[in-house]
Amino acid sequence: MTVLVASDLDRTLIYSTNALALTGPDAEAPRLLCVEVYESRPLSYMTETAARLLTELGDAAVFVPTTTRTREQYRRISLPGPAPAYAICANGGHLLVDGESDPDWHARVTARLAAECAPLAEVRSHLERTADPAWTRKHRVAEDLFAYLVVERELLPEQWVKELAVWAENRGWTVSLQGRKIYAVPKPLTKSAAMREVARRTGADLTLAAGDSLLDADLLLAADRGWRPGHGELADADWTAPGITALPERGVAAGEEILREFLRAAHPPR
Asked: pTM of the entire structure?
């Protein structure tokens, strides 16, 4: 049986210092492995136990890192285990095959966005007009596919986010607030579509997925089984669905438990 595992990365399998959620005594904290360096500084971690589990998973299933990160941001990550043959970047806008973007897949995605959604330029213009510089730190465009803001979360007006979500909905876009980033993403730009394509190419008999944000919901629903951690947008909304397991673990401990669940599902007891 071919098992495909499509997992979100940030705050699902890998964690920044601020997202680790280490709550026990310092002397009992898990040993951490740095898996990402940015500008010569360590940025993202997983526990050493999670690293071992991911290596085991790479031998037991087709593991597909699945992220909203751009290709450049994804390539900063050095995950343990076998190099993935497939990876999904830019929320499904790029399907990497042996590290290179599949041009046919990208062309199909961009054609669909042009046909079904308001253009990126319109969304960028709206963000620039309405986002207050008092709480906006950066405006960014990812892969010419979607836009996001880096904000001061404690200063961000909740009502502004709600109004943005309504404005975007009417134009075929969706909004997701993840930590200090607000994403505006075209609705057809999904991780699930790219996962289905990898499942088709690999002949997967069973698909497993995990994620923590609203941008992961479609991925979880598309898989045969899915898991979400006890933190993130999905947990905050108490989101669930048939086939979805809501884990109680939070922070880097959730990353460990998600990998255990993947391995149990990939190797069910006889």
From this structure: 0.93
Nearest to 84 by CA among 9, 147, 165: 9
Which tens digit of pLDDT belongs to each residue from 216-232? 999 999 999 999 999 99
Q: How far is CA 234 from the centre of its chain?
A: 12
DSSP state for residue 66 in the 8-state scheme: B
Q: Is the dihedral of CA 35, 37, 38, 43 positive or negative?
A: positive
Digit-coded pLDDT (tens) for 51-108 = 999 999 999 999 999 999 999 999 999 999 999 999 999 999 999 999 999 999 999 9
Per-residue DSSP letters for 119-181? Answer: -HHHHHHHHHHHS-TTTEEEEEEETTTEEEEEE-GGG--HHHHHHHHHHHHTTTEEEEEETTE
Of 232, 181, 241, the residue nearest 211 (C-alpha) = 232
Tell me the C-alpha distance between 157 and 31, whole Å.
37
